[in-house]
Amino acid sequence: MDQGVMSAINFVLTLLLRLVAAVMTVIGVVETFCRRLLIDAGVNGQLQAAILVIVAILLIVAALRLLGGVFGLLITVLLVLLVLHVLMPGMHIPGQVSL
User: Fold this and answer.
1) Are 7 and 91 in contact (CB under 8 A)?
2) Mean pLDDT in each 10-residue stretch from start to end of the chain (99 residues)?
3) ∠ CA(58), CA(63), CA(64), 5° rounding?
């Protein structure tokens, strides 16, 4: 695979992974905050677990609604780069030295 195209694909994949990591970090912080609130309120056991599952689902839906366009754009760019590489294996990015 051409080094320039490989670098572009790696860049897009890194962006996707960092975005997912950021979303997971926010979900973890909110879950910990909610768990502490529930414990302080005296809610334990299965009720606490059910409430936290609902909160997690709502956070995931919110993240997808807020960042869905970004995820879609990054995945589209990745797929376009892969298709271009399959169609034109000798292609290189301008300014990059072809190996």
Assistant:
1) no
2) 75 87 88 91 89 88 84 79 70 55
3) 100
Question: Which of 58, 54, 73 shows the shortest CA–CA distance to 15?
Answer: 73
Which pTM was predicted? 0.67
| 47 half-sphere exposure, CB direction, 13 A CA radius | 6
Both ends of the chain: CA-CA distance in Å? Answer: 10
- Which three-class secondary structure state does DSSP give residue 92? coil
Q: Report long-range pairs for 5-10 (Cβ below 8 Å, ≥24 apart).
A: 5/81, 5/84, 5/85, 5/91, 5/92, 5/93, 7/93, 7/96, 8/81, 8/93, 9/78, 9/81, 9/82, 9/85
